[in-house]
Amino acid sequence: MACADSEEQGALVEGSVLEMPYRLVEWRPEHAPGGEVHRAELLLELGEAGGRRPQRAAYTVELVGTPPRAVDPRELGLRGVRP
Amino acid sequence: MNLIETLLATVVVTMSAAASLQLWGLAAVATAKHDRLQGLMDQVDAELMAVDLRLRQEARAVASPQDCEDAAQHLLHLALAMPAGGDVLRQVEQGGEAHQQVVVTVGAEELDQPRRRLYSPAALNLCGGVVEAEEEQAGGAGGEADGEE
User: Which chain A residues are Cβ-neighbours of B124 within 8 angstroms?
Assistant: First the structure.
């Protein structure tokens, strides 16, 4: 199994999309009956943008193929505001 | 109560009634504006969800992975072909790395910030498998992100 390079691994932890910075707070794998991880729930912290305070939001992604690729991201919703 | 007292009482009642009416008027205007903004935000959300649903339906209908740039073009045309409704302004453009992603911006003139969403064909599983395998053979690698504002 090939590993992603350091830049790609770094982008999994933090980066920015459409000028909005994000940071991975935690992720929770979901296992298929066979034991393989087939889905993951991500908790991201969305950085300050447009004068807004940082927010946390949860998403799910499907993991397909080998090496796994994260596809079909879906938002679960906001998870409160950082104090 | 003599005449002067009666006149003064009438003036006081009239003034208080006018002030009360003015306050009610201001409150009604503020409520109407709030309702209007809330309605616009609902329209923006509905528009974004409609585009999202259409693009994901298309992604499910495509059986085999395509080239990422072709898939981005396909998504772009698909989103552009959708009719925009009401007071909502929608903009669809290519974006991201190597123009292999589509940015959908939905807003309204009265709203401060539009909502933007980046669609990556690779994240929708429209491409990536074949291309990624080819890149691996050539010693390269690819990545994608999907986000929302």
Answer: 71-72
